[in-house]
Amino acid sequence: MPVIDKNISLLPFNTFHFDCLAGHFTIIQTEEDIHQIIQQGLLKDKQAIIVGGGSNILLTKDLPLHLIIKNEIKGIQVLQETPDDVLVEVGAGENWHEFVMHCIQYDWGGLENLSLIPGTVGAAPMQNIGAYGVEIKDCLAYVKAIDKESTEEKIFSKEQCNFGYRESIFKKEAKDQYIITRVGFRLSKTNHVFHVGYGAIQQVLSEMKINNLTLRAVSDAVISIRKSKLPDPAVLGNAGSFFKNPEISIEQYNQLQILFPNIPSFPINEYKIKVPAAWLIEQCGWKGKKVGNVGVHAHQALVLIHYGNGKGEDVLMLAKQIQQSVIDTFNITLQMEVNVI
Asked: How many other C-beta atoms are found inside a 10 Å radius of the C-beta of residue 270?
């Protein structure tokens, strides 16, 4: 039976570095641990929150009635292999970036553009993490999860995960119903497809004098870009991108372009277009702005910062002020990517 600790500080378990107290806290390392917690009725008695790396949550209060479950299920196992590809199953508690580096070491392609994204493997499919033209759904084969009521294991195919932009079934229809245990990925061994047309990847590769593309080179370029734009959570408290890039209609975009000729965009289909949230926030004057102990990062307006001695409520208030100013200026509603607790 996993040990249940009481009144534990969550400071080490969230990258914003807020010192909130959890009434109950435990660590799971196997599927059997989950079965025992459920059979003991702990998930019925208390509100359970599953955390991985704590890189996508904003804690705004103490949680005396909650059970915080830290998922540390580990393991990387090759299940199938052909000359062209490999099927790998990964424990939900594995560090995401370390897993990506593992793939690159073995020359398994598909995830290199997702290098240096904080968090764990189990959290990745929940919001269909993506960066530089690649999303996790592009390589994901399935997700294994345990039903929090019945303890039965369910395997979600990629199609059953209902992936969307930073969305999945685990954030919608199946929210709070399952604990993700393992994730399967199908990765290339030969004929790798390199995605270098997004952002500054091509420019950085040129600066690195890379003539022959490799998985390592693409990963190195992505890591270089992320380090230059995004603050290290160990130094400045943050949860990465705080807002999603909004999708608006073509008609609305055309109207905005009259007032803002330089508004950037990324076409989605013949009806919708995506506008960078960072650009909208910057146009509203928020980039680099500090409000008390929190603020907006000077190099990336999508990132909200906790400088220390602040509260989660301060970040939430700042986020709402940013949302309102974007609505007032562009009539666009920004949705938070970070989970507010």
From this structure: 7
CA atoms lying within 13 Å on the CB side of residue 264: 11
Catalytic residues: 166, 241, 337
Q: Give the chain's length.
A: 341
Q: What is the pLDDT of residues 74-89, one digit of tens each?
A: 999 999 999 999 999 9
CATH architecture of structural domain 5-71: 2-Layer Sandwich (3.30)
By three-state DSSP, how is residue 242 classified? coil
CATH 3.30.43.10 domain extents, the chain? 5-71
Greater model confidence, 207 or 186: 186
Residues 6+ apart with CB under 8 A from 334: 243, 244, 246, 277, 280, 281, 322, 323, 326
Q: What is the mean pLDDT of residues 126-154?
A: 94
- Tokens encoding 332: 């666009």
Decide if 297 contacts 231 (C-beta within 8 A): yes
- Residue 45: pLDDT over 80: no
| Placement of tokens 């189990």 in the chain | 122
Q: Which amino acid is at 312?
A: G
Torsion angle in degrees (nearest 10) through CA of 155, 53, 288, 309 = 140
What value does the mean pLDDT take over residues 1-27?
95
Q: Does 46 score more than 80 pLDDT?
A: no
**CA within 13 Å, CB half, 163:** 20
Please state the pTM of the whole predicted model: 0.91
| CB 85 within 8 Å of CB 186 | yes
Range 247-340 classified under CATH 1.20.1070.10: no
